[in-house]
Amino acid sequence: MIDNGGGSELLPRLCCPEKGPNGYGFHLHGEKGKVGQFIRLVEPDSPAEKSGLRAGDRLVEVNGDNVEKESHQQVVNRIRGSPGSVRLLVVDSATDERLQKLGLECTEDLVRGLPDEKLEEAKSGGQEPREAAQREPDVAEEDKKKKADGEKEEEEEANHAAQRKELRPRLCRMKKGPNGYGFNLHSDKAKPGQYVRAVDPDSPAEASGLLPQDRIIEVNGVCMEGKQHSDVVSAIRSGGDETELLVVDSLADEFFKKCNVIPSEAHLKGEAPILAGILLRIGVI
Asked: Compositional bias (Basic and acidic residues) spans (predicted)?
């Protein structure tokens, strides 16, 4: 990440991750009622995490091009089309709010600091500029026009195949360390199955890509659907010093359940199940 030199000052950030064997290691999604694309999750020890990217950041530019009004798939395509590395200009929610109040457009120039006149205005607690206050109605008007033209429906249809590919189980392989694997299991009374409650930092579990709230589908190739907590623990222990867990996050879990399909290793790379009418706006990059 390029240092903004401003300590705790609220400024945009420029994150430049280099693509690793598993991609950049972050998840992108749209939020209802908000314009733009947001970082949903940053995988531990990934190029994205090392670049300074954070969950909740709003994506403003990709390789110097503003993407605030682009569709989810357009943004995903831009990032995927960038060879080797990508430049992402992002803002967290507090910085986003501050820039809007000052009437400033978020650009790469602001990474190193605000213009002098705006810095004085920020220090004096100046009034919210009229143009910033009017920004939301403009967005609402644009959304209205999109709906009238039917663009939203066309865009979702175009994205459907890509989204199905991205909602998949994950296979996490780990070797026991001095303190075990480094994760805890728990049950949720409201939901069937066994879930990952916590993943210890710098543990074998974290290195394998296991995440909190993942649901366990298989242990060492054996399906755990309908099994009790003790059964899952025993299956993990029976693997000795190594274990292999097939898991799904909450979005993938919901998708497969609505398709009435139990995830398996066949879904890691093969054809994902099709669910007519379900369009989950989520990207994994």
From this structure: 119-150
